[in-house]
Fold:
Amino acid sequence: MKASQLTYRKVSELHPFEHNPRKIEKEDFERLVDSIRTSGWWEHRPAALEEVDGRLVVLCGNQRLRAAKKLRLQQVPTILYSELTDEERKDIIARDNVNNGEFDYEILDEDPYWEDVDLEAIGVEAPPVEEPEKPQKKSKKASEPTDDEEDGDDIIDDGKDAFYRSMLGDFIYDSDNRFEIPNLLLDQQPKHLELPLNPWGANSRLRKGVSTYHFYVDDYRFEALFKDPINLLSSGCKQIVEPNCSCHDQTPIAMGIYQIYRKRYLARYFQECGVKVWVDLNVSHRFIEYNKMGVPKGYNAFCTRGLDGWMESLKLDLQVAQEISGLEKPNLLVYGGGEEIQEFCREHGLVYITDFINAKKK
Structure:
């Protein structure tokens, strides 16, 4: 067996191995694409090649090759093997796809070295944090109110997850439009942003003590939320910005309406469970009218993404917030965007919030 020096080769010259034993789920593939887009194809993990009948076949790195093609990369680092026996070839492929050892989740959770590493983005999922068992309250006579009842608060005990799941049925909520996009509740809109504000999925684990989550992150990070939103509720957050499902000018109308339906349905569900909701206005011009559906007149809690060089988009979002709220200075949060966006917010009485992810990169 011989191996060449590391060499960059054209992606167009590489061919997948027809007997590749590895498969990848869609969500994991999108995570891989995002990783290569952000960090590039690492030289310390080059594609392992073999020349077969004049074609360069990828023995190791087939999923990364798919990601590279999706990203339209021109070249990637490779090593070319030659004079391989059948046993050596199979051994190279098998060993490249075997993960030895396991993560020490106690270190990942407690060591400050890993505190700001986005482990979820690279596919590392820590087990859920076990909450300490709460002591059972002694029962009182029916006529004797508890302290919580005297304060007028509803009591959700250790069975709160069961309550959340009971609210997760296949419901049809009231709607003001022909697409049956659910209406939001006026009495479950926030007046002020409660901190800390965290991007969903941008931490290595679900953190306790986060008051508000937003979803101005890649779509794949919160796709699991639509399957099971209980983790977010169990975190104890008090507010959310609606999930920002991508709706571009090129998105088919049917898909855009579906995305808006999903986020508004989930937002209404969170409201039913006691979480207050900021309406997400960050959609392309093509979907502005659809995105208004289900937001009742007088609603006054909005959020959008501020982007440098996209001032016209922010102006349109402000107009939508003014129209729905009926106010010249609506309760609109603007997430990120730079100095020009900040100045616009100051002039129009809007709340500007620093972009968490880009601020960390700087």
